[in-house]
Amino acid sequence: MKNCVAACLFLLPLAGVTFQAEAADTDERFFRNVEGQWTGPGEIVAGKYKGTKFTCTLAGTTPENAVGMTLDGSCRVGVFSQPMKATVVRAGKSYTGAFNDGAAGKGLDVTSGTVSGDRVVFGLNRKQLNGAMLARIADENTMSVTVSVRVEKELVPVIGISLKRVDATAFGSIAKN
Length: 177
Hints:
The protein is α+β, with helices and mostly antiparallel strands. The protein has 1 helix and 10 strands, in the order αββββββββββ.
């Protein structure tokens, strides 16, 4: 009995390490599914530019030495094109990063984040503007993105994007050696 208790006490701290490793693996698996070329329509669904439709073309990549992702490309309205870039990396138990040049420029800061199964939620901030971005990968070739802003105590969706994978391979399905 003493040996059993001693073994359990010895293994207990390792269980926490295993859980953290599994959580990190789940996060990394989600971001690996973002790798590849994506394109699709979006729409501004609230605010001054409500009803504006656009099309985005983005390349998803993951960093070699960190858990996270970058979506880099552009969104087009008619003949006008705007560069778009979102980069996030794991920072402790959360995520940090920036949209375009971050809040110091004309973009947004990513101030928090969590991965849960097929979706990720990032907290967004720019001066007094607080919001969230939800990205969901419905299957290996479909990703939806919703950006919401906080109005009083509610999150109000303002942008919706539906992306389809346009490259031939779903990178997240490739086993890592």
